[in-house]
Amino acid sequence: MDEFNREYARAKAASKIFIRNAAAEEVDEAQKIESQKVGHSKSGYVPTGTLQGSITPQFSEDGMKVSVVPLATAEDAEKARKQIKQGEKKIRKVNKPSKNEDAYYYGTAVEFGKGRNPKEPFMKPSGEKVAAHLEKKFEDTMRQALE
Fold first, then answer.
1. Which of 85, 68, 67, 75 is nearest to 106 (CA)?
2. Distance CA 74, CA 93 (A)
3. Is 59 left (phi over 0), alpha (psi -120 to 50) or beta?
4. Which letter does DSSP use for residue 1 in this model?
5. Which of 132, 115, 112 is nearest to 123 (CA)?
6. CA 56 from chain center: how many Å?
7. DSSP readout, 24-74?
8. CA angle (60, 108, 89) in 5-degree steps
9. Mean pLDDT across the chain, nearest whole number?
10. How far apart, in whole angstroms, are the C-alpha atoms of residue 112 and residue 122?
């Protein structure tokens, strides 16, 4: 039983590391897609980097689940536009949900489209791309953890 508990602990620890690395990989991929494709077809589009910088992993308390989400709000984007107009080069990253209950998280509108704005998915393609190779990676991770 002791050996089983040790192997279980190693597998659980390896799983947490795997989940953190997978989340980081998806954040990187979503940011890359967002920066290359979102908004470039719109005339007058001025990227602030707010949406890209807000793509953040949100982990469960036990670290065994993760959701990668864009946390930028319309208020964040407006602040960024003002800062850019004032000449600031570096825009603050958003990595926590807004405390304002009425906050409008515009990443959903970008991903799925809203009104006249076409959908410009960046989260789904990144998730699909990362997930495509994770199964094999996870199997390898578990084999190493249990050796």
1. 75
2. 14
3. beta
4. -
5. 112
6. 4
7. HHHHHHHHHHHHHHTTTTSTT----SHHHHTEEEEE-TTSS-EEEEE--BH
8. 90
9. 84
10. 10
Residue found by looking up tokens 């077809």 in the block: 41
Max CA separation in the chain (angstroms): 65
* Chain position carrying tokens 């990362």: 130
Cα dihedral 108→114→120→122 (10° resolution): 0
Written as six digits, the tokens of 137 are: 């990676």
CB atoms within 10 A of CB 9: 11
The dihedrals phi and psi of 143, each to the nearest 5 degrees, come to -60, -45
Q: How far is CA 53 from CA 28, 100, 122, 147, in A?
A: 10, 19, 13, 39
Which token pair is 105? 């998280």
Mean pLDDT of 46-68: 88
Element holding 100 (H helix, E strand): none
| Model confidence pLDDT, tens digit, residues 6-36 | 888 888 888 898 899 999 999 999 999 988 8
Distance CA 69, CA 98 (A): 13
**How much is the pTM?**
0.80
Contacts of 3 (CB under 8 A, 6+ apart): none
